[in-house]
Each structure stands twice: as structure tokens, then as C-alpha cells.
């Protein structure tokens, strides 16, 4: 795979796929992390005299123009961050775009409109991929967050142009790849989130790699049930209980210490101001539901985390959006921030959690990918990455 460091970009038109899929609230960007994460690549290319053509998706407009999903606010933010004018175009193909590109000077940066306004983007339509390719001399993919999608601007385009990975893409692949391939041990993974269904692949793959696996979140109650305990009204995936049992068995065979919560904060209903109690997970009362790990579990997890050399975290320990059920996730986040081990936050909700507790700066790496980092941790090939392989 080539890096942008291997390319001679001076005077060249470079089509750069970035992931500017940022949260918007009435046209206002509420978190610009992904824009800032792409700056090193943009600055490097522009500084070397490239004509930088940025392309991204935003939201899921389903192949149609959607006024609420235009990239203009991103162009504005980018102009501020780069300290130079970034022209945001109202389209991503066609004559307006061709003319804008033709008038670019070395070091200029333009931003194409949301590529998902074209139905061909998500279908990886070869015709659309060709139209994107015709705008440029080189292709760079820096959109790690969208690398699990085989779309026209993340995969198809690479068939037409010399392709390379951007600096963010390289860093994400390097950090996550090293952690999985040659972790300093003990290697601990923390897996939380609502459903077992979404984490089957990652739990299975990590059981081949880690020394400790700490479980939390809604998914842990299916494991509690698999241990033979009643879990009251807690979230349980009845059809995944046998799978949970097989994971418990696999952990035993592999010598992995699988930690299942021993206590929980339970509530009378799923509400921020519900009545709560802390109970042992072998005696969750009928009618109550677990919404967070309890203090005993949090303390045990914090201990393991502090003694680990590599820590990978994906998924919150409880309903951290509600204060009454945030403590477990917070305690774990603090332990991850404090440990001397190398810490990786696998994007999505866990990234939002460390952001909420103001601890993001104290992590070694916070991935910009949600689905992409999850698929990477499952050991899957990412189409946006394999498209960059030397042909
Ligand atoms: C993300 O936010 O995870 C990426 O930008 C991918 O978005 P998507 O799930 O809509 O493809």
C-alpha cells in the first residue's frame, strides 16, 4: 500500500476521500473531531503544491439531494481550521465541478458536495467512480471511518487512479493493527454496548487475542443469564444465550479471563429518574432491569485496566447518557485514562463517553471510526483499505 509520502503531488489534482460525517444540529457542527483529524493530510498535500479535491458523505440521504445534509457548514469550519479559503461546491460531479477544478491553483483546497446525493455512491456504480476519477490525477483515501463501505468514492475510484492512503488512515491502521498483532501484555479488551448481536464478531475474534475480556452494558445480561442467573427485566437476547455459553467456554479453552459483571445498578424502569438499587447480578429482583455495572464490578475492572499494558475499549458499561447509570462507564474511563498501558478507544459510543467525561485527551488513540474500527477488530478486510493495495 502506498502512502501519500510516496507520491509526488506538486501541481497534481488529488481526489481525497475524507470522512466528514459529523453531527449537525440545525446547520451547526456539534463535534468537529473528524474534520480536525483530516487536517494533517490536507495540509501536507496542499503544502506540497497539490490541488486538493475533498470528497465526503454526510448522513444517509439515500441517493437524493437533502438540504439538511449539505457539506457547506463543513467547508466553513474547514476554512477556519486551515486558515485559508475552502470553496464548498454545491455538486460533486458535472460541469460546475469540472470548471472549479480547472481553475484551481497549486495548494488550493475545494470541497465537493455530499457524495451520497448520488444513488451510485453506495452502489459503487462504476460510472460514478469514473466521473470522480476524471476530476483528478491521484486518489488518496483518508476516510478510515468509511473504510468498511465499498462505495464509489471509497473503493470504485481506486480502480482508475494511482491510489494511496492518507495520514489518518495510516495512523488508524497502524495503531489498531499493532494492538491486535503484537500487543504488549497483559492485553485487555473492554466490550460493552446494548446488544450481543452487534458484538459477536468482535468478541469471538478478541478471545483469540486478549488476556482479559471485560464485559459490560446491556449485552452482559445475556452472559449473566448464561451463567444461570435470573436477570429480571434486563435486556436479554434469548437466542444468544447458547452463544454466550460458547464464548464462556472458548475463554476457558483459550486461557482468557472473561469478566462478567458481579453487581449492577438496577432500575424500576428505563428512565433517568427511576428508582435505583445496587444488587448482585446473581440476585436481580423480578421486575427490575440492570442499566449499569455496579461499584464492585467497576472497581475490579479498574484494577485489571491499571495492570494492563494494552487496552482496547469498545462500548459503554451502562446507559451513560443518564447520570444515574453513568458511573460504571465513568469509572472505567477514568481507569483507562490513568493506566500506564497503551489505550485505544474504538470509536462510536465509547469515544462519545470519554468525550463526555472530558478524558479524550488522556487516551493514546481515539479512533475516528465507529463501524469501521469495529469491523477491523473483528478481523475483517475493509474494502476502502484493500482498494488501495498495489495492483
Ligand atoms: C460513520 O459515521 O461510522 C461513518 O461515517 C460511516 O457512516 P455510515 O454508517 O452511514 O456508512
Automatic annotation (TrEMBL):
**Which cell locations does it reside in?**
Cytoplasm
Positions binding (2R)-3-phosphoglycerate in this chain are 34, 116, 149
- Report the EC code(s) recorded for this entry: 2.7.2.3
**Any one annotated GO CC term:** cytosol
Recorded hits in Pfam families, A to Z, give:
PGK
- Identify a single GO molecular function assigned to this protein: phosphoglycerate kinase activity
Provide the top EC class.
transferase
Q: Which UniProt keywords apply?
A: ATP-binding, Cytoplasm, Glycolysis, Kinase, Nucleotide-binding, Transferase
Q: Which reaction does it catalyse?
A: (2R)-3-phosphoglycerate + ATP = (2R)-3-phospho-glyceroyl phosphate + ADP
> What processes does the entry annotate via GO biological process terms?
gluconeogenesis; glycolytic process
Question: Which amino acid positions bind substrate, per UniProt?
Answer: 19-21, 34, 57-60, 116, 149
Q: What is its main location?
A: cytoplasm
How does it associate, per the subunit comment? Monomer.
Q: Which PANTHER family match?
A: PHOSPHOGLYCERATE KINASE, PHOSPHOGLYCERATE KINASE 1, CHLOROPLASTIC-RELATED
Stated family:
Belongs to the phosphoglycerate kinase family.
Please state what the protein is called: Phosphoglycerate kinase
Task: Give the organism, scientific name.
Answer: Bhargavaea cecembensis DSE10
Q: Give the gene that encodes this protein.
A: pgk
Amino acid at each position: 500500500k502506498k502512502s501519500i509520502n510516496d507520491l509526488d503531488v506538486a501541481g497534481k489534482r488529488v481526489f481525497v476521500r475524507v470522512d466528514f460525517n459529523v453531527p449537525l444540529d440545525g446547520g451547526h457542527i456539534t463535534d468537529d473531531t473528524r474534520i480536525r483529524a483530516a487536517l494533517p493530510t490536507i495540509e501536507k498535500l496542499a503544502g506540497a503544491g497539490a490541488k486538493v479535491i475533498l470528497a465526503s458523505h454526510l448522513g444517509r440521504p439515500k441517493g437524493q439531494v437533502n438540504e439538511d445534509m449539505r457539506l457547506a457548514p463543513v467547508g466553513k469550519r474547514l476554512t477556519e481550521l486551515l486558515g485559508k479559503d475552502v470553496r464548498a461546491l454545491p455538486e460533486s460531479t458535472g460541469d460546475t465541478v469540472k470548471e472549479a477544478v480547472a481553475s484551481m491553483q497549486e495548494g488550493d483546497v475545494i470541497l465537493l458536495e455530499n457524495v451520497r446525493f448520488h444513488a451510485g455512491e453506495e452502489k459503487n456504480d462504476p460510472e460514478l467512480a469514473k466521473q470522480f476519477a476524471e476530476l483528478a490525477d491521484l486518489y488518496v483515501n483518508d476516510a478510515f471511518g468509511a473504510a468498511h463501505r465499498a462505495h464509489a468514492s471509497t473503493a470504485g475510484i481506486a480502480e482508475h487512479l494511482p491510489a494511496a492512503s492518507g495520514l489518518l488512515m495510516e495512523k488508524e491502521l497502524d495503531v489498531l493493527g499493532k494492538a491486535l498483532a503484537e500487543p504488549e501484555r497483559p492485553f485487555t479488551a473492554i466490550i460493552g454496548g446494548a446488544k450481543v448481536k452487534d458484538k459477536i464478531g468482535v468478541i469471538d475474534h478478541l478471545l483469540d487475542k486478549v488476556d482479559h475480556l471485560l464485559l459490560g452494558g446491556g449485552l452482559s445480561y445475556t452472559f449473566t443469564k448464561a451463567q444461570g442467573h435470573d436477570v429480571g427485566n434486563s435486556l436479554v437476547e434469548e437466542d444468544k444465550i447458547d452463544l454466550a455459553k460458547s464464548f464462556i467456554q472458548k475463554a476457558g479453552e483459550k486461557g482468557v479471563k472473561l469478566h462478567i459483571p458481579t453487581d449492577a445498578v438496577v432500575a424500576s424502569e428505563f428512565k433517568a429518574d427511576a428508582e435505583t438499587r445496587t444488587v448482585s447480578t446473581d440476585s436481580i429482583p423480578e421486575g427490575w432491569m440492570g442499566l449499569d455495572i455496579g461499584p464492585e464490578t467497576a472497581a475490579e475492572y479498574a484494577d485489571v485496566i491499571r495492570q494492563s499494558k494494552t487496552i482496547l475499549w469498545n462500548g459503554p458499561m451502562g446507559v451513560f447518557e443518564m447520570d444515574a447509570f453513568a458511573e460504571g462507564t465513568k469509572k472505567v474511563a477514568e481507569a483507562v485514562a490513568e493506566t500506564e498501558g497503551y489505550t485505544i478507544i474504538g470509536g462510536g459510543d465509547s469515544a462519545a463517553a470519554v468525550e463526555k467525561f472530558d478524558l479524550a485527551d488522556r487516551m493514546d488513540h481515539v479512533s475516528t471510526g465507529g463501524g469501521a474500527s469495529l469491523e477491523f477488530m473483528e478481523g475483517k478486510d475493509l474494502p476502502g483499505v484493500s482498494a488501495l493495495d498495489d495492483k
